[in-house]
Amino acid sequence: MGTFETVDAGGATARTYMTGGADPGTPGVIVLHPWWGLNEDVIAYADRLAAEGYAVMAPDMFGGEVATAVDDADRLSSEMSEAVGEAITLAAVDALGERLGPGVPLAALGFSFGAAWAIWAPTQRDRVLATIVYYGTWVDSVLGRAKVPVLGHFAEDDPYETAETVTEFEQGLRDAGREATIHRYPGTGHWFAEPSRDAYQPEAAELAFERTVAFLRDGLRQ
Fold first, then answer.
1. How is the beta sheet containing 12-19 ordered, strand by strand?
2. Helix pair 82-100, 113-120: axis angle to 10 deg
3. What string of DSSP letters covers 12-77?
4. How far is CA 196 from CA 10, 29, 44, 51, 103, in A?
């Protein structure tokens, strides 16, 4: 449905998946992958957002590598430097923004590992007007460096993002004067929205997607 393209990321090139956005003025969404890499789950999710009327770019943080086992995913995410993550995130935001034209709003959406970059992106680029995270947080002063609303989808039982961490994240957003809509999905675990994982829960994933589309329509003023 989409195409693979390259963008300039601080002097290097980064691979991206681009889908949707044929009409002028179409809002854009940057989709930032989990620690598995830019896999078929992420590509399918990007295509679903495109079908809802968005221009979607999903950058590849891992240079084409994709993991299926936790140990490999942990290695890939650990080996990627913060500077590389920043460069690729901003390259995707800037490339999609240039494609869509001046004034067209963007949102940043991240799964797990990618959630941190989705939270960080609007601190660097004013045209990123909304953030969506799936079972990923960032709890420190960065939350006060942007004012855009945040939608969060979290599992009930998650050793990576505990209930305490999610509460701290939500409170940090509110303390920073930001609008935070946080959903917790009963009977779910980490990766509940990713079809290739054993933790996949289709009903919760579908509800999260519907809530995401509604949030984007409001946040990007469609």
1. 3-9, 12-19, 55-59, 28-32, 106-111, 128-134, 150-157, 180-189
2. 60
3. EEEEEEEE---STT--EEEEE--TT-S-HHHHHHHHHHHHTT-EEEEE-TTTT----SHHHHHHHH
4. 32, 22, 11, 21, 36
Contact between 68 and 16 under an 8 Å Cβ cutoff? The reply is: no
Question: Is 206 a residue whose pLDDT tops 50?
Answer: yes
Residue 54 Cα distances to 19, 48, 70, 190, angstroms = 8, 9, 31, 26
Tokens, residue 207 = 């509800």
Give the separation between CA 139 and CA 94, rounded to whole angstroms.
26
Task: Determine which helix (DSSP H) or strand (DSSP E) holds 205, and give its type and residue range.
Answer: helix 202-219
pTM value surpassing 0.90: yes
Q: Are the C-beta atoms of 147 and 178 separated by less than 8 Å? A: yes
The tens digit of pLDDT for each residue in 82-105 reads 999 999 999 999 999 999 999 999
Give the model's confidence band at 222: pLDDT under 50 very low, under 70 low, under 90 confident, else very high.
very low
CATH number at residue 140: 3.40.50.1820
Q: How many domains does the chain have?
A: 1
- Helices 202-219 and 40-51: crossing angle in degrees, nearest 10, is 50
Determine the Cα–Cα distance for residues 60 and 203; give it in Å rounded to an integer. Answer: 28
User: Which residues form the domain of 87?
Assistant: 3-219
Nearest Cα to Cα of residue 214 among 177, 174, 169, 181: 181
Q: How far does CA 51 lie from the centroid of its chain?
A: 17
